Amino acid sequence: MIPLEQLHEQNHKMGELAKTLEYMFRDRELCDTGVTYELFERYLKLFDEHMSHNKDIYATLLNHSDTSVRHTVERFMEGEREIKRVFHDYEHKWCKHGLHINDHDAFSAETEDMFNLVWERIQAESEQLYPIYRQHG
Q: What global pTM score does this model have?
């Protein structure tokens, strides 16, 4: 089990990368660069790694006797599935062998939505899931 401090650190790194990428993606010429894609791959890898560590928390809390704790964990698991679906669709559309942007406005809007979705998830983990785990885990 990874310590919660490391999960918070991963959340911080994902937020930092998202802000950097959002800034870079505003410039159409930077979107297709190798450096930008390397940073984006780092973001995706960190996200996947982070979600895999949350599974340990889920497994622990799903066995809890308090139904509200189990319900919260189930909600996080459902949210994770939705975020992974969004990521998969996004990668399939924009990230075949690097970033390939045909419609910069659409790409920018979808990217902003995706980063916002992950940021909301990060906040929810920090404010809801991790405190429950500290208390009951």
A: 0.84
